[in-house]
Amino acid sequence: MGKQNHYDYFISFEKIAAKGSEIARMLIRSFEEFQQETLPDHLAAMHQLEHEADLMGHEMMHHLARDFITPIERDDLIQLANELDEVIDAIEDVLMRVYMYNVPSILPDAVSFAKTILHCAEILEQSVQEFSQFKKSKTLTGLLIEVNRLEEEGDKLYTEAVRALYSNPSLPPLEVMGWTEIYHRMERCCDNCEHAADVMERVIMNNT
Question: Does 2 score more than 50 pLDDT?
Fold first, then answer.
């Protein structure tokens, strides 16, 4: 009999999380090199990354429907896959809102916020890389705590960035409204990273 191919869910999670970091780096690049006329190109490139991550998720669900034995509970596999997908979708949504609201330039607070999102996505990626060893990893718990800390940092950035918007009388009202929504979407990126970390934390608690 031929050897049965074994699908590695943890490797798939690592690949999807890496897409999250990649798309976060692209968000910063789009902000730092911002030009309205090239924004559609950045959006198209970002959407390609999101599509590649979606294909990975679909492949995982295909195997999950067929596999009799899974390394952790099926519900946990599904939820972690969904949460990692939400991280990528949320980051793409930020740039989409920049395009939709036709903002003329990128505010400094937005660049700082994007860097926090990237940091959060990168720490989440490191957490996912450790996840297959969750029963004996010496660093996973600390990484998950750091994701939670960065989510709190994102909350503070959101509060201060929105306050700065409404404290700036030189900004046109429509621009203030647009950036209010964009900042809200940026705050959700950090929230979604935390949600993914929460799934991993629950798996640790239920299996150790």
Answer: no
User: Cβ distance 183 to 113 under 8 Å?
Assistant: yes
121 vs 72, more confident: 121
Mention every residue, 6+ apart, whose C-beta is less than 8 A from residue 67.
7
* pLDDT in the model for residue 1: 34
163 alpha-carbon distance from chain centroid: 24
71: DSSP letter: S
